[in-house]
Amino acid sequence: MPPVFTIALRVYYEDTDAAGVVYYANYLKFMERARTEWLRALGFEQDELARRDGVMFVVRSAAMEFLKPAHFNDAIDVDVAIAGYRGASIDFAQHVRRAATVLCEAKVRVACVTSATHAPCALPAALAAQLKEMNL
Predict the structure, then answer these.
(1) pLDDT of residue 135
(2) Domain containing 86: what range?
(3) What is the DSSP letter of 53?
(4) What is the predicted pLDDT for the residue at 109?
(5) What gap in Å lies between CA 76 and CA 59, rounded to an integer?
(6) CATH value at residue 67
(7) Looking at the annotation, which residues are catalytic?
(8) Which helix (H) or strand (E) element contains residue 41?
């Protein structure tokens, strides 16, 4: 099983609909935040990668299952695990949980593209080396 990175978040009023339930699109925001923090924990800042290496990451695809609702003021955890990677993309398995209960799960493919043209390009060498070192 790949290592899991987790961030803790709180559901704010702005994250919910009129019924106090998290609006479905906001789960994507929570997962994006977790992937950004995962990358930061590895020592990579996205703005620095764009400036120094001329690359950025874009979501190529996302498949989600909504299992149970999150509500206003819930404390939630958002998990990030690497499901696989190739030369120009990383596949993530992500979960949003309230305690041990999985609320939402997703498979997200993120592609590496050039900042200038948005054409696919190889993952930065330092990131690819870290993923390899992690035996992923």
Answers:
(1) 73
(2) 4-133
(3) I
(4) 98
(5) 23
(6) 3.10.129.10
(7) 17
(8) helix 24-41
